[in-house]
Amino acid sequence: MVDYLIDSLGFSKQEAICTSTKILHLKSTKNSQSVIDFLRNYNLSETDVKSIVLSQPSILLRKVDKTLEPKFKILSEIGFSGSDLVSVIKRDPNLLVRGLHTSIMPAIRLLRKILGTNEKILKVIKRSHWPFYGKSFRTNVVLMAKFGVSDKDLERVILRNPRLVNQNPARLEEKLVDVEKEFGIMRGSSMFSYGLSAICSQNKSNLQKKFELFKSFGWCDSDIYAIAKSQPLCFTHSEERLSKGLNFFMAELGCSPSWLATRGSLLMYSLEKRVKPRYQVFKALEEKGVKSKEFHSFLCLSDTDFVKQVVERHKEAIPDDLYDQFTKRS
Counting C-beta atoms within 10 Å of the first and last residue's C-beta, which end of the chain has fewer, N or C? Predict the structure, then answer.
């Protein structure tokens, strides 16, 4: 077997020895060759075939017609091919030994019910790995529905953070309760799933430090709850980024906590790439006496609309270097 792996797949001697110890009871290379031929015929490169065998040596024990071919067919129908196919198998080699009808197909049917298309299923699995055949996933789907997470929000959560729905159900239930307890976001709210993403991104200690950070800038509990309800994802930012944002809007621009609490999206924007450059434009227009929208309205415009509606429209009032900065970027 060691010589066979070296000759047929280009294994190093050490790789071949290590792999052969995991399939000691294999007495013939006949089935192994059938597996390798199957993988090669699936348009996988020699490197791909070697990677799969290295990550899951027991694949050499599987029957091509009964085990491997049906699974690869299903994966191909979803959209996996070539390096993507190798990647998903390497991330979770157990996929090759899972039951097709007892684990893999039920998971795919549930994902298709939630996501709707193979393209989205492919995207989710690429972003995570393949734990969707586990009981945790099915239990968590039911659990989130119990807490009022809509089908549309569930789809968004899975697309944004697949690992969130594959964690231990008991742990997820604690996080679901914390969305109400820590953020004050009620079940069934359109912001509940966003709050869940924010809660799941950190431990309670880190979240508490961010609450204390807001308080250090003069925020009261009602202001913190207000921004948590309207823009919970701002709590996914680091303390450093939040501190810089709060300092700019409050210390430099004079925004009050109650005003900023209802406009939490402002803290989501990049200070250096979006907020400060646009503030320079705002100040330039103000100095020229050009009437314009409130500054926070500038920040909400897309890059294209900002250039079109503000920079191009008021070209004469904006310094050349600042004008070039925005038009070249766009």
Answer: C
More confident residue, 86 or 71: 71
Which amino acid, one-letter code, is at 219? W
Tokens (6 digits) for 47: 């490197």
> Which DSSP string corresponds to 2-21?
HHHHHHHH---HHHHHHHHG
Q: Count of CB atoms within 10 A of residue 113's CB?
A: 10
C-beta separation of 58 from 22 below 8 A: yes
Q: What is the pTM of this model?
A: 0.76
pLDDT tens-digit map of 105-149: 888 888 899 999 988 988 888 777 666 667 888 899 999 999 989
Question: Which one, of 212, 169, 172, 224, lies nearest residue 196 by Cα?
Answer: 172
Rounded to 5°, the CA angle 217-222-227 comes to 75
Select from 212, 257, 210, 215 the least CA-distant residue to 236: 210
d(CA 300, CA 235): 19
